[in-house]
Amino acid sequence: MNRALILGGALSALMVIAALLSFVWTPFDHGAMNIPDKLQTPNSTHWFGTDHFGRDMFSMIMVGARTSIAVACVAVGIGIGLGVPLGLWAAARQGGWVDEVIMRGNDMIFAFPSLVIAILITAVFGAGAINAIIAIGIFNIPVFARVTRGGALPLWAREFILAARVAGKGAARISVEHILPNIANLLIVQATIQFSLGILAEAALSYVGLGAQPPTPSWGRMLADAQTLVSIAPHMALGPGMAIILTVLGLNLLGDGLRDALDPKLRVARV
Amino acid sequence: MLRYTLKRLVSLAISLAIASLLIFAVIEVAPGDPASFMLGINAQEDTLAALRAELGLDQPKWQRYLSWVGGMLQGDFGTSYQYRTPVTQMIADRLWVSLPLALYALTLSTIIAFPAGIYAASRRGKAGDVGVMGATQVGIAIPNFWFAMMLVLIFAINLRWFSAGGFAGWDKGGWAAMKSLTLPAIALALPQAAILARVMRSSLLDVLDEDFMRTARAKGLSRGAALRRHGLRNAMIPVLTILGLQFSFLLAGGIIIEQVFYLPGLGRLIFQSISARDLIVVESVTMLLVFAVIMVNFLVDLAYAAVDPRLRART
What we know:
Radius of gyration of chain B: 24 Å
Number of helices of chain B: 13
Radius of gyration of chain A: 22 Å
Structural class of chain A: mainly alpha
Oligomer: heterodimer
Order of helices and strands of chain A: HHHHHHHHHH
Largest sheet of chain A: none
Number of strands of chain B: 0
Largest interface: A-B, 42 and 47 residues
Helix content of chain A: over 70%
Shape of chain A: elongated
Shape of chain B: globular
Distance between the termini of chain A: 20 Å
Number of strands of chain A: 0
Helix content of chain B: over 70%
């Protein structure tokens, strides 16, 4: 049995459950300040301790999972929503000018330092979750376009596609009805990887104050708060840091596991 | 090779032109007028107009774009709204922090990743391989700014081996400057090393399956000798590509790490300029970073094509 798939799936599921559960229950109100209880180290009441305002870290991490997952989810959605159609279109017009324009455009976006551009976008259009999503999402488009085109090209040479063409189906219909279902595996694996990169990017943007704004808790923001206090309250950095690491690790393992499970041919050649 | 180089040069020029247009456009729509920001809310209308004229903000957009690009081509990045000093000088000062930091991190990443990747490949499927690969999985998942905080906590606050932040300056001697870049470089290098080790391993594994490796073993070379003489050289091509990409990533990625360690590099310059609405600085530093990344990619492509003639034919 595939250990990466089980471990990765369990870790990812844990985060999703924590995020969903936070809508109905958290140990404490995540926004409630309680100065007398500030900077408590982890104990039986406050499992991950409290921050400098006496807020319960565990509750904040649970609610922060919502922010991370929502931002990464929509950013991946943007990548799939725009990248996959572009990739399908490029593959259908292989070698033509449409293909050329789409792929050169992709190369352009790839050449940009994504973090710098994301900082530029959020700084200019205002810090916040929405702009962070857009800034992260833009860089997902070429990734999905490339994966889609790469997966679709060999399929276009196959006989079942020829049969569909003989039956009178147009390129658009073939792309949706025959190409897309056959590259779904590739896209799912890529989506998992982009999801984990999205969570890391969101954390970095929030950390420098350009992501989700207070009072919305986010893991990156919590780490920024922890930084000034790291000498007296290291537990403030530990909780959110572990949340990010375990989520990203879980998603990466899930992606690896899915790739192995969905396509045994790739089992030896993975990075 | 000449044809290929020319072709790549044309696409390099197009990329840079589009990049400069995009950056200019984004900065143009930025809310906030630099002139009123500098003079405060009580400024008189005629003073504002005079300052706008002095900064060149009253000229048409296309003219400002052309003079910005034209200036950069001559190495003139304009004058900072905030400090009234040439941006070129500001960037040059900061590059003395950001560039050594990126190179330092790249060196560390290579020193860690190469042995780790080679070791894992040579122990394929055994406990050593599984251990190294597991460690790299964790390494990839660690956000570098969080790792930086942990390094500060352990090596600066508890052990007091390094200072928690700031930059000693090169005038105090290379040793002090390198020492203040050490923790930032480690923080930057570790996640990159994890990626590089994985590429090294998989690239080596691909080569190990090749026929010429079997021939090398058949002619009597030991495992180690075959790996060194034939395996590594062939495995290096994809590794070098990744290495080039990582350098540009480290240069741009240093932005966040510079925030953690209060290093006076390009990243801090960008953040300070954003909050001061010193848009000409933001614009020029962003363009410079984009230029560096595109340029490194271009050089890697050329180097790649020089080593591997098959690539020239394909494009």
